[in-house]
């Protein structure tokens, strides 16, 4: 079976974020970097070429195959800022009702700019997600 394309690596998070061409996306990325660093107590790592992640856990596929993945992360994409909330959003209805303007995918929170969301609610969402991931994944680190 092939390896995951997106893996943790030694690339510089700061160089990556400083290379983001969209000024607002770069500024928001640096702010989210600080928020996630404070909430997790972890230093960031690059995952692939465009994702900044914090902490790790072992993910087990239905097939039995395992892979390492981040507890939480983000990427300043061209269209929006993508935050990776690894346990999904089913248990966060109350927080999401207060967050502001956003869209979600299975484990992705998409925001156009940080001013569209309540920073304290976002911080709490990240905190609760990381705590849940650590509690439910015995091999979580970070």
3D structure, described in words:
With 142 residues, this protein is of the alpha+beta class. The protein has one domain (8-133): Alpha-Beta Complex (Aspartate Aminotransferase, domain 1), CATH 3.90.1150.200. The protein has four helices and nine strands; from the N terminus they run βααββββββαββα. The protein has helices at residues 13-18, 23-40, 93-99, 119-136, and strands at residues 8-9, 45-47, 51-54, 57-60, 66-69, 72-76, 81-85, 103-104, 108-111. The strands form two sheets. It has a seven-stranded antiparallel beta sheet with strand order 1-2-3-6-7-9-8. A two-stranded antiparallel sheet has the order 4-5. The chain is globular, with a radius of gyration of 15 Å. The relative contact order is 0.17. The mean pLDDT is 92.
How many beta-strand elements?
Answer: 9
Q: Shape from CA axes?
A: globular
CATH topology: Aspartate Aminotransferase, domain 1
Structural class: alpha+beta
Our estimate of the beta-strand percent is 15-25%
Q: List the uncertain runs.
A: none
The percent of residues in helical segments reads 25-40%
As a whole number of angstroms, the C-alpha radius of gyration is 15 Å
Largest sheet: 7 strands, antiparallel
Cα distance spanning the termini: 28 Å
Mean pLDDT: 92
Total helical segments? 4
Top-tier CATH class: Alpha Beta
- Largest sheet strand order: 1-2-3-6-7-9-8
Q: Which CATH architecture?
A: Alpha-Beta Complex
Q: What are the secondary-structure elements, in order, as H or E? A: EHHEEEEEEHEEH
How many distinct domains?
A: 1
């Amino acid at each position: 079976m092939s390896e995951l394309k997106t893996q943790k690596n030694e690339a510089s998070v700061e160089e990556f974020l400083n290379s983001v061409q969209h000024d607002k996306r770069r500024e928001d990325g640096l702010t989210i970097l600080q928020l996630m660093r404070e909430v997790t107590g972890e230093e960031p790592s690059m995952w692939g070429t465009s994702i900044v992640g914090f902490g790790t856990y072992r993910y087990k596929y239905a097939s039995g195959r395992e892979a390492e993945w981040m507890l939480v992360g983000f990427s300043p994409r061209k269209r929006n800022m993508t935050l990776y909330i690894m346990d999904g959003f089913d248990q966060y209805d109350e927080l999401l009702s207060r967050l502001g303007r956003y869209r979600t995918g299975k484990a992705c929170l998409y925001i156009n700019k940080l001013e569209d969301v309540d920073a304290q609610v976002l911080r709490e969402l990240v905190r609760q997600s990381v705590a849940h991931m650590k509690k439910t994944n015995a091999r979580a680190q970070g």
